[in-house]
């Protein structure tokens, strides 16, 4: 929906829109502990090694600076005395060299573990994301706000890995700073205060711009989804045919150009301002450093501190400044990253309404009476119109019921309610006298086989495409072959160069594409893979020629003797095979009966039947 409303000119948010408050950003930091817990759970051993290496690394700068002070003081001492031994000096240099080597090795180790842990974490969070998405209700997928959340949670996979390194780096730098600060404060605590004042503006500036940047990116989520959609539509095998025939490329490219350049310009404005202010703040930091430097030089000239101490203190100050700046700046990007975590956790907090219940009744096998619709009404999310209303009828156990109605009458909606992809907005559906909502959804879905008109063309082998009907039987070749025979897919598969192992669809190399009707025969095979008590064919035969459709349904009737089935077809030659026919119009019950009864009644069905017989439908 968002996509089309944007096509019709809804304006994306501008920079001036209210940014997030400091409070919101600080409160987003509460996501860090659960986040770190997730990182830890990814691989506790690697996480522990990472923490230990970083703790060791944090102490190295002070050690190097201190050894540096000793070296310089020793050099000064040697220049003032004649014939002194250089052994101590060389030992100090060797120690500093050793520290430098250890530091390099630790850096490499940290980078390695960060990378590996980051990869593991990214993989695991993607898996969790897919698993959680699979648990959600269908109508949640039809909500554009949900899609935006999913999109942000998905897009941030890489950034979450970066965030992990940032948080760990932050802890490491803070530890280094504490160690250095002890040395600096022991000499003169005012130096620490000066340092803090010098870097504060840079911190405030960074946090302000990060907040803006988050608002910009966040506010643009629907448009960025639209950009992805345009990119995909403009260059994909699914759309190439119509894009060419209707000459849509210019239209799509223009829309892409218009949107992407708006985003680019907004972003450019922000980045430029950020860079300009960044230079001003950096100069303030340098001023602080040179202030402290002048003070130290004067103290050295006055003989209060040694030259070695001067290098130690100036080095500590410089290092602290760098660290403090890095920590404060990183703090703002960590806060920003935490805001994105909000999306991530929000997504995981979404709960499906259709859920498993511990006290659910056992699913009847066999179904004794059937499904009874009691005053059922249903509205799709965010719509006012009733797709189905006041529906009262019984689908009897073992009968074949055909649904007839014009486009948009509500046939597919009825099927979705039967299979509990949605629950009725009003009224209820009973199965053998028990509300469908009381059964566990998995039990119900196991007992129902539905092939929709828009079934998925999985870009996988022909065998897998049939096995999809019961994926735990994917290795059961005889079962797959027998299902293929029943749905007439075997005639299609026998012509494929690699038979059941042939990849179908054009997406992958070696893939062979099929005609619409051939795809349908394969998809129909899925229905026969199941040992379901209720089979529903929602017009999956529309691309078959009339003879093939007749043959498919004839077989279907024979092979599903005694099973309950719902058939949807616009062809009356097929419809008349059903035991009873339910005619619906605008989501409402019109009439129900066998073909003969409805013809004899001479009402709506009879009229539609006559129209088709004359070739008007
Ligand atoms: N996901 C959806 N969100 C909002 N409205 C929907 C959705 N799916 C269907 N509708 C609306 O619900 C009504 C019934 O649609 P449904 O798909 O059940 O019709 P149908 O009888 O199966 O039509 P067809 O013969 O064209 O397949 C239509 O008005 C349709 O526009």
From TrEMBL:
The keyword Acyltransferase does not apply. It is a multi-pass membrane protein. Residues 371-611 form the ABC transporter domain. Gene3D superfamilies: ABC transporter type 1, transmembrane domain (1.20.1560.10), P-loop containing nucleotide triphosphate hydrolases (3.40.50.300). It is found in: Cell membrane. Coiled coil: none annotated. It comes from Rufibacter roseus. GO terms for molecular function: ATP binding. This is ABC transporter ATP-binding protein. Keywords: ATP-binding, Membrane, Nucleotide-binding, Transmembrane, Transmembrane helix. SMART domains: AAA. SUPFAM superfamilies: ABC transporter transmembrane region, P-loop containing nucleoside triphosphate hydrolases. The chain crosses the membrane at residues 174-204, 292-314. Residues 51-336 form the ABC transmembrane type-1 domain.
